[in-house]
Amino acid sequence: MDAPFRQYLGCERFPENLTEPEVAHFFSLSEDDRRTVRRRRRPLNRLGVALQVGFLRLTGAPLNSVEMISPQVLAHLGAELGIAPPRLASIRALYRRHRTLFEHQDAAKQALGLRDLTEHGERALNGFLRREAGDKFLVDELEQAARAWLRDHHYVQLPTRRLRSSASGARRHYDGGLLAGAVAAVGIEQTKVWPLELSETMPNGKTRLEWLRDSPASRKTKGLADHIAKIDFLKKLGADRLHLGLAAGMLNAQARSMLYRKPATLKRMRGERKTIEIACFLRLQLLRLTDGGLGMIDYRIADLWRQARTRAEAAVEDELRRHQALVLQLASLVDDENTSASVARDQMRTMLAPFLPASAHGPSTKVGRVRRELATAGRGASELLGAASSISLDLPSTHPLSQALTTLDRVAGSEMGRLPEGTANPFGRTWAFLIDQPDREAAFGGYRAATLMLLKRSLRNGQASVDHSLEHRAPEDRLIPKAQWQKERARFVRNLAVSAKPEANIRWIKDELTTALKAIDAAVSRGDIRIENDRLVVPKLKAAPEDERLKAIRRELFAGVGKIQLPDLLIAIDAATRFSWALLGRSPASEHELIILYAALIALGSDLTAADMARMTLNIEADAVGEMMRRIEANGRLPAANRLVLDHFRTLPVTRLWGGGIQASADMMSLDATRHLWTARHDPRRRTPAVGTYTHVLDQWVILHDQAVVLNRRQAGAAIEGALRHEAVDLHRVAVDTHGHTHFGMALANLVGFDLAPRLAGMNKRKLYLPRGLDVPASLRPIVSETVSTSAITRGWDPLLRIAASTKSGWCSATYVLDRFGSAARGDEAFQAGDAFGRLLLTRFLGAYLGDPAFRGMNDALLSQGESVHTLQRAIYSGPIGARHGRTPEQMAAISSGLTLLTNVIMTWNATRIGEVRARMPDTFPDHHIMHIAPNAHEHINTKGVITIDVSPHRDRLLGGKPPAAGIRSVT
């Protein structure tokens, strides 16, 4: 079933406000349907059967409702059957005899091939729900999964109450097993102590629960020590023994309530739910704090390296000044004719003496100088290594880092602070000049600095792992287990986009490369690109001349679109999509609750605070808005609300003019933040502390997916992850910039089913990577590098397929894979295979990018489109993120998704109004002009100032026909 129509599955009454395309889609009769209908002689009976067929196709359930049938549906069916339908009708009016109703329902089931759920089918459904309960936390999600299962197995949908009872039973069964596992891991007595321990008040006035939930106060020594203390406390409570077998998403869902629970409520909690929530919370916090601690260590090591580099650069400048002074002194001595040769030599020896030891002290390279300076970072380096040891890293006994840490512990225990003579160097030749020097105290500093850098590298490539971690578990623990991979390899590979045999893929890519080389050679011959001084020259594409009338047409179009307040816009789109129902998890209780919800959504997705919204909106309080913001963060339903808006946007006819819906661009946008925010990093372009939101923008302009990211990290993992995890469309290509591209990332994207299309910086330095043996045109020889080893692809193909299958099936994220299999993983067979295959895929892509200017223009335009959407997002979120917001992953996810929802709502409203204006005046606004007018305009939308939220025009749709709540009046 198409995504926009999933919302109707299982409905027991006619959906309100069915659109014309929906009526036509579900209530138009096929030839088989007509044969079923024609078996009835009377017109009303034919109408009844056709109505049952259409409703069953729409909802999967028979029509029993006594409410009035939509006149629009009756008119459509009348036209289909060639009869005059009644203007108003209900099931009660159509069916005077219940037996006739049941006969028509049976006929509709037979026509659509549906059957009632049998006893055997119910057992299968319950088994399915129990399995799904391990991946889906909410009963609503289990109910939706059950409806999808019934549809896929050609069963009639069950009544909501019965289906919800089955889903709740599956949830209780799974939670019972989870409780038994937690009690078995730590003991019943320990579980009884948890609420008391978490409720304990610390000297600073906070409870242990609040302390555990706090983000790090700083990245310095005090903050790291506090972080390690939290990890130790959680281990004391047994969190490291709570191997619950839950995926990260499910663990987060089970613990979500504890992330927002007030400490005073801990003692009032009762039953199994309390133990499960606390167990999952302790485990989740241990995993997060371990990742955060290792992240702080990684950040501090990088900071020590930056400080050492600064000192080394300052030392180089000082040395240059001293050398310049030495030259002047020597020149003056040479010109002094009164000084004898022997005296001059003595003075020269004195002048040169300070410079002579430097040549024997080590290499004069920049990196060597930085390493020498890093060796002097005594206290800071010791603190970081001690913190890493307290986290309990898992290392093979033969790993160089394990040997180095053992050596450092032995030296530190002797209190000598000197590296013993003859100590082995496990770090390689690059550190030998520091470790083998005669000064053994300085050698100890060099050994410690080398250990720090090896620790950083080992954390990056996964050789150093931690069992109680999310992002730093051993790669083997994150991938499909080897035994399962060997058993089900064929099934996993079928889900990928490539052959299981490396030879077949090598033959395919060689054929593609031959085509690519011919296309690039033809482009050189045409003069589209040039090769000068053995470098590639790619001229900028000339901008297409803009139609003189387009600007005037755009102004006229948006004059017809009209000005609007942001709340009115939200209400209009909510009436069409009911995204507020998704955010609340139910229908709104009153108009006042809706008003608070809209205010909280605006505050989440913009730079406004709860207090700002209370000042700008009549009759609401800041506390109520703040509480609603916390509820939205806690329930995690923003992506579901975004999905409703996205599905509605794609049903609008005008969107087909903007794109085919199979391509997207992926890019990061930085949001200014206070420097006190833990996840903030320095944005080199904007030169301010910032956090990032990474968005995938469909070629039809709407945002498909968003995720909060940390700045200054490669974005290829985020680009692949976002394209994989959304369910709205099947993407064929994702355009990225240089930050979203790596060779391994190109390979991983291709294996999971789509292509990365990078716009690369420094094209004049790019090479066409090829294997040996291909026929290379003479014109391209200067820019060809035949360095790709097909034997490396063959050797590492199976582990590479295992990584790709693990990523696609959700065992691990693409972000994790790209972090672990980056440059730090050199030497790993899977990395070598992915890197080699990715280089060939990049050359294949360059064949289209360089050989076809139209394709190049389309790809660049796709990226520009994403940047244009970022312009709208900056207009919505123009201020910095404050110190009290964005501290936890949930808060950052809510900020990112809230901004995405507001952006999509604005573009949906623009697209709706553009379609309406175009429908009224098609000659004035022809398609070839509309396709160049984007829906991301915002000048006509007032997002600030005094806000009036009036839901009364759409009250029935938004509240589901509920009467006004007593004592609540509309805010006007």
UniProtKB/TrEMBL annotation:
Residues 12-156 form the DUF4158 domain. Residues 568-945 form the Tn3 transposase DDE domain. It comes from the Bacteria. Keywords: DNA recombination, DNA-binding, Transposition. One of its GO terms (molecular function) is DNA binding. Pfam families: DDE_Tnp_Tn3, DUF4158. One of its GO terms (biological process) is DNA transposition. Belongs to the transposase 7 family. This is TnpA family transposase.
